[in-house]
Amino acid sequence: MRLDAIRRPFDPAxxxxxxxxxxxxxxxxxxxxxxxxxxEGRVFLVKHSYLTGWHLPGGGVETGExxxxxxxxxxxxxxxxxxxxxxxxxxxYFNRRASRRDHVALFIVRSFxxxxxxxxxxxxxxxxxxxPQALPDDTxxxxxxxxxxxxxxxxxxxxx
Length: 160
Hints:
This protein is α+β, with helices and mostly antiparallel strands. The chain contains four helices and nine strands, in the order H-H-E-E-E-E-H-E-E-E-E-E-H. It has a four-stranded mixed beta sheet, with helices on both faces. The protein has a three-stranded antiparallel beta sheet with strand order 3-2-9, with helices on one face.
């Protein structure tokens, strides 16, 4: 039996433990999210194995990473997306729902290539491009609000 097959059932539990550990061991956590628009104006969303609903792709900024490097890594990992031009930094948000220490940088991505659709894996179980007017019913509240802010030109909120 391969080690991957043995380890796979524990991946979500291990990830939850590590997320809890990081929340309490770091003074401040910073994450990045990408609001990725394709040529038809559709938005790229992902569904995680450890969260409910659809979300913008992104994740935590690791030690030694810049915000842009973290965004590039997360987009590649979650969407097989490579930036072809620098994205625009839209806003920073305080994400008090995650913890009292969590902040998120949102980037607008309009220039990219997706070499091939990503394959579902232990972290990303579904993905797709969706019209902002026809998002999946279980799209997260924060994701809906960020899309509305950007498309309406409304000033960013302080809270994620």
